[in-house]
Amino acid sequence: MSHITIVGGGISGLVTAYRLAPDHQITLLEADARLGGCLHSTTLAGAVPVGLDTGAEASLYRRPETKDLAAELGLDVEFPSTAHSSRVLSKGRLHPIPKRTVMGVPGNAAEVRDLLGEDVSDRVAHEVITDPIAGSDVSLGDFLTERLGADLVDTLVDPLLGGVYAGRCRDLSLASTVPALLPAAREGTSVLELVQSLLAARDAQSAEGTGPQPVFMSLVGGINRLVPALEQHIRELGGTIHTGTQVTSVQDEGDRWAVATEDFVVDCDAVVLATPAHVTKDLLAEVAPESASMLASVPYASTALIPALVEVGDRGLEGSGFLVPPTESSFIKASTFVSNKWPWMRERIPEGTALIRMSIGRYGDGPGGWQDCEDDELIARAYADWQSIADRRSDRLIAAEAHRWERALPQYLPGHAETVARIDAEIAGIAGLELAGSAYFGVGIPACIDRAETVARRITLSALTHTEDGHTQQKEQE
C-alpha cells in the first residue's frame, strides 16, 4: 500500500483523497482551519435554518462529474426553479438575458435586439469575418469585438463570463474559457453560423430525451455539502486529515518524498499539490523550477460576497437575479435571488422574506476600492446598490455578512492551455508528483473533479506498475 500526501483540502484535494483512500494510505494537509476551499456556507448567525453557500453556489449538471459524485455519496440533487430567469443591467434598466446564446453570443442577431437595440443588433448580424488567428489562441473579448461589435461584448458576454471567472473577457483566453467558439477563430469562419450549429445540436439532444436538461444543480444546504460528505468517507476509509497545517516545503528524495509542515514531516511515496498556483509555485521552486515560474504568471481575482436575508413584504421578488456589466456605474457586479432560484431554500425561510447574494469585485480592480472597505461599509454599499438596481428601496435588511475571497479565481489569459501543457510535461517527468486544482483546465466544480480523478488514476496506475515491476525483478533474482 502506497502512502500518498495531498496538500490542499478544497474540492480538488478532497476528491483526490477520496478516490485514492480505498487502496492507499492517505494524508491530507490543509492550511486553513476548515476544509472546502471555495465551498463554504453560513446560516447568517442562525437567521437561516440551513446552510447558504458563500462561495460557489451551483455546479453544471450537463457535465457528469458532480452529479455522479453526489449520487455516489448518497446526496440528492436539487435543480433551480424554472419559474424564474436572470436579467442583465443595461443603461440603468434590467432586461431579460437572451436564452439562445453560447456565453452571450447569439446564433441569430434578432435574439439580442430587445436588449441591445436595433443598431447594435444590426452590427451583430453583419459579422465581420476575420482571417484565421496566427496562433492557437486569442483574447475572447478582442476576437468577438472585432467580429460582432463592442456593445454585445461589453453588455452581455463580459458579465456572463465575469460570473464564472470574476474577470474581463478582453483579458481572458478564448481557447480556455469558451472553446466551443475556437473553430471560428482558427478557421476564419462565421461565429454566428457556428453558434447556430451548436444550438441546433443542443436542441437535438434535448429532443432525444424527455425534454431540456437542467443546466445547473445543487444540494439541500448548498453545493458545499459535498465537503463534509467527502471528509466523512475519507476518514471512514482510514485517511488522515490535518487542518490548520501549513506545508513549508516539498522535497524529492529519490524514490520517496518528504512533505514538511511547521510541526512535522510526512514521508511518503507520492505527493499531490491541490493548491492555488501562487501556493504551488513556492512548493515547486526546487523540484520543478520551470513549472514554478510558469505558475507564478497565473493571475488571480479577489472578490467579496454578501449573503443577506431581506424582508420583502407582500411584494415578492421577480426573477432569479441579475448581472451588471463593467460599463455600468455600480458597486456590485451581480446578485442571485437565492430563495427564488432554489425551491428548497424558499421552503425553509419565513413568508415575506427573501435570501439574496450580492457579488463584488473583478480582476483588475485597483486600490482604493471595495477592498479598502470595512465589512459594515461593504454590506451597506452593496445593499444600497442592490435596492437601487432591483427597485426595492422599501425592503429591509434583516441579516447580512461579508465574505472575502482573496486571490480565489485564476484568470486564464490567452495561451493558458499551452502553459498548462508545458507544466504537465515537466511534472510528468518527476515520478510521484501530481498537480490538481482550478489553475489548470477549469475553475468550475466538474472541471476540478475531473482533474482530481485523472490524477488519482495516474497515481494508482503508477503504483500498480511499480508493484508489478518489483515482482518481476524478484522473480528474476530467484
Question: How would you describe this structure to a colleague?
Answer:
The protein has 478 residues and is α+β, with helices and mostly antiparallel strands. The chain has 17 helices and 23 strands. The chain folds into 3 domains: 3-36 and 224-298 and 412-477, FAD/NAD(P)-binding domain, CATH 3.50.50; 92-208, protoporphyrinogen ix oxidase, domain 3 (Orthogonal Bundle); 301-409, Alpha-Beta Complex (Polyamine Oxidase, Chain A, domain 2). The chain has helices at residues 11-20, 64-72, 113-116, 118-125, 140-148, 150-165, 174-177, 182-187, 191-208, 226-236, 277-284, 289-296, 338-341, 343-346, 375-390, 416-428, 445-477; strands at residues 3-7, 25-29, 41-42, 52-53, 59-60, 77-78, 86-90, 93-96, 101-102, 105-106, 216-219, 240-242, 247-252, 257-261, 265-268, 270-273, 300-311, 321-323, 334-336, 353-360, 396-400, 403-410, 433-435. Strand 13 and strand 14 (257-261) form a beta hairpin. Helix 1 (11-20) packs parallel to helix 10 (226-236), helix 1 (11-20) packs parallel to helix 17 and helix 5 (140-148) runs antiparallel to helix 6.
